[in-house]
Design the sequence.
């Protein structure tokens, strides 16, 4: 129950911050959003939300690219760790089960499944960013 309340509070704060700024101020507002290590991530993240979280000094986010090595080598989000989906359950060993983890892949399918897999493995704070192209396209626009 506490987890749900924290998640709803995070979403409400995020939405209110987004609604209160003009388009020109969006980037500045996103950089002011902070995520303490104990805060719950929403189930999915937008480009602006992920960028704001990753731009924080000493961000606690563990960013997992669940694509293949070949896909990763073709382009990835800075500071992402390669954790191929087909090896995730056998090889992923983050000791802090509450650490904020964000997963992404090529189209969003593997990321969605990876999120569910990590939750089933006992990780409590996992968000699905979806497709790498969402990052690439958002970066190009900004």
Sequence:
């Amino acid at each position: 129950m506490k987890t749900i309340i924290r998640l709803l509070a995070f979403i409400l704060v995020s939405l209110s911050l987004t609604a209160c700024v003009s388009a020109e101020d969006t980037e500045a507002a996103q950089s002011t959003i902070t995520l303490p290590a104990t805060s719950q991530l929403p189930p999915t993240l937008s480009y602006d939300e992920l960028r704001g979280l990753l731009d924080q000094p000493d961000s606690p986010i563990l960013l997992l690219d669940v694509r293949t090595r070949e896909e990763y080598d073709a382009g990835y989000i800075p500071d992402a760790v390669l954790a191929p989906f087909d090896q995730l359950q056998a090889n992923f060993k983050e000791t802090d089960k509450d650490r904020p983890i964000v997963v992404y892949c090529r189209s969003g399918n593997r990321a969605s499944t990876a999120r569910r897999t990590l939750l089933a493995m006992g990780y409590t704070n996992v968000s699905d960013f979806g497709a790498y192209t969402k990052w690439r396209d958002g970066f190009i626009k900004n």
